[in-house]
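pinging the channel bc i need a second pair of eyes. not urgent but kinda urgent?? the chain im working w is below, pasted from the shared doc
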Amino acid sequence: MMHILICNERFLFRFGLDRTLILFGRGLKSAGHRISIMANKCDGDVLRKFASDVIEVPESRTDYLRSNEFTEKWLNDTWDRHFTDANTPDIVLIGGWPFFASISLFRRKGIPVVFLDCGAVPLKGYTGGALITQKKLRELRQHFLPEATAIIAISQFIADSQSIADTRSKIPIFTNLLGADHMDMNIWQEHNEHKTEDILKKVVAIKQEGKYCILNLGRWEPHCYKNSEAIFDILRAVRRKIPHCVLLVLDKPSEIQIPNDLSEIICPIGFPTDAELKYLMNNADLGVSTSLWEGFNLPLAEMQWLKKPVLVFNTGAHPEVVIHPWYLCTDNEEMADKAIKILQGRDLDRETKETALQKFHASFTWNSSIAGLANILQNVSINNSQRTLPNAAIIVDVTNAARDTANSGVIRVTRRICHEFQKYVHELFVVWDGERDQYVFPTKAEFHQLSQFNGPVFKEDCILSPNTGRLTLTEYLEKNPDAKRWLIFTETLAENRANLIRRFARENDISLAAIFYDAIPVLYPDLCKDITVRNNHSSYMAGLAECDIIIPISGYSAECLENFWRSQGIKGCPVVPNLLPGEFGGFPRNITIQTPNVKNTRILCVSTLEPRKNHKTLIDACLLLQKEHPEVNWTLTLVGNRYAGAFEIADEIQQISKENSRIQWAGVIPDTTLHRLYEEATFTVYPSIIEGFGMPILESIWHGKPVICSNLGVMSELAADGGCLTTEILDKKSLSNSIYRLCTDTSLILKLSQEAITRPIKSWDEYTKQFLSILQIRGAPPISVCTSKITPRYMRWPAWEETLYPNCLCENWQMNHSERMALTALLMRHKPQCSIEIGTYKGGSLSLISQLSRCVYSLDIDPSIPERFGYFKNVTFLTGSSTISLPLLLKAFDAEEVPVDFILIDGDHSAEGVKRDLNSVLAYIPKRPLFVMLHDSFNPECRRGMLEASWDASPYVKWVDLDFVPGRIVENGSSSDGEQWGGLALAYLTPVIRDKSLAIDQTANRMYGFMKKNLDRKIGK
């Protein structure tokens, strides 16, 4: 439990930030944390329901602009009055004014500070005192935010546009989107200035007159970023097509200058209570927000939660919050046009809208936002404790990343893994000094370069070399002799340097680990024009054998390294692959499909300009497309640095871009710019011939963008999980045809986009935890993560259920352990592409199937299932009787040529229901091997339904066993006669009828035995 102090100027009704902080406070209290409040003004009745202490801060009576300095001085002078050793907060959450200057005071007291960044509004339109205050706010942000422990931005827009700039990337920045379901919580009961019936009567009267009701969302503030006056022109345009409409405005009549021609159809209604506002939103036909800047836009989220259409401008955080891009508008004219369509019943099509709403309801809950906040505060608290550790557990060689101004693949890995290591271990960054032949600590300028592109952030315990001279690693080790450490090579080294480093490590009792990328300079020397790299690589690969462990970026790279060692007669060291992640630069994953703009296709290629990346064929393919299909409107943007030894590639591309405006080379760009290019792209092309991994493929998938790539090597392996169109990338005609398909075939783009947003992708956090776990497994010294009571998950010895079923819902799972293990074994062996589960119940088996299948369809009669489990990203939910939905679904799969290869039926219902489900399955002709499983198969009703099903009518059934898995090994239920049982039935349907060369029971029991052995080993039996 943490003691959390929340500080803000106000905690009063109607203010968005106040509401947000109160919801966070209530949620954190419910989670078991102690909450204290510090504020100038507050609603005590509301706060006392969850806060243990409410500290009222006096206001500056003389100078409001110096409120922050006044508050910091008052808090320092009265500190002992409020805080003792027993009740000092563990962490402080600050909402803003007047607590900016207090950030420094809290940090001096040793308390971590997290700033909730809602952003500073645009200055345009403000004058007088309001303008002066806003300018002061910006000065305070830039001066004090870098001193905070971390920032939590309420949207990625705020993080990118303000948090990063104001902190100068010195501290961790997190994004935590807010919720939308708070109006059901009744935080404030009565704060209305009039009777609820007055508003009800107005809305009822509008409806009875047959008029459409439009609700203008948010505060009425003309001539500033709120852009309120824009609604007048929009309303005039709407009225020309929809004359019977009324606009409700949230303000007093005296505060709005309504044009004469609109006076009869604009109705100011004051400031409604939550209950009134909810009623208005529910009964309005349309919501409109004309704001030109929003850090989140709570009213937008609130009305969408009620499943009502809302139009907003495509600006600020709106693209992150709006349920679908269709509701984003570029100008007044488009907003008016879409408003007319909605009022005429020509809204977004029902199926697309329903899917978008389901995703919104699954994501934008306050429970989710509060859980995200709690997790961040917990991590910040852990990291703050970690800073006091005197010795380093990990040393990272950052020689190239601290000096290279670009961000190629290897450098990107170095910077990002250094950033992630900071969450869990005390870390030292070192660079190689060629003149001294030893490691030194980076200078301030070198660390700044290392920190670019989402690299590590500067912390109090970071060691830098002063400007007056270099501090050596040897000097540090002499002062800290007792710590056991790992030295990690995240970059490819020159072997003459690596040999010296290995000797240094042995002399100082330091273990060595290295990331291995590829053997391309050895296997394909003709593709490596850099003579230095080509001549060094075989010696470098041989030298890696002297490390303690090698962690390749893919199974393919691991195989290449081990084959090389065998060919050279080298014994080598342990090799444990850790597949690189696909997460891009800390940006949230895109889970929304954007309708492609076929009138203007934007193609993106991200890759260093080196020979094996095959840029020439790509450009030739695009020029061929221009020649053969002049009607196609396309642009190609190339992102990547020049390559030593092949500068002619960049020179040629520069010349081509001068001659053809459709082709542009952006060179080296910040991650924020690259993120925008990914978002704007229709699809990407990665034409590389050979790779150790191919990170831009997964980064494109992370953004939900389809990729054209090679049909060979590791690229084809990455493409197998979906979202990619593979082709002969060395053949410009084949490549050109593939590009043409994605330029013109909208259905193919949408299909690949759907695959992209649903396929599983490893995050950097997952990669880092696995990396650290590998070091521990191989006898690394224990990694001291923190001194607090909270232990990070990867440091715990996991429970056996967590070992077997990571990230699964194990409670209320209606299966015995033997059934679960057999199901897991089959799924891991079978690797289904398309799965169906009939009967979801508490989501246990669904949480497992969704992790081990590409896509899953859940059929259940319970209408609450989609809302409860909508966060399973690759699951589609169908509500209703499976008697109706299952045959229709299988028929649809047949029509779309989608093969089903796994079905799980919950047998815990009537015999007739089981029989109907099975007969629907048996009528289906499988296109690839199909496993059908039933659990609770020892339920007499289930068993009877199975026996009565038309098994003989299907020629595709290869094997059926009603007594599959004896189930006497782990833990089981008991039947009525006291015998233990597994209760699982299996049917195997095959598209090709063959003799039984291997009985399925033998295969399945082998898998079951393997899982049992693995379980015993992991729980220490």
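so The longest strand covers residues 957-964. and The chain has a mean pLDDT of 83. — does that match what u expected or am i reading it wrong
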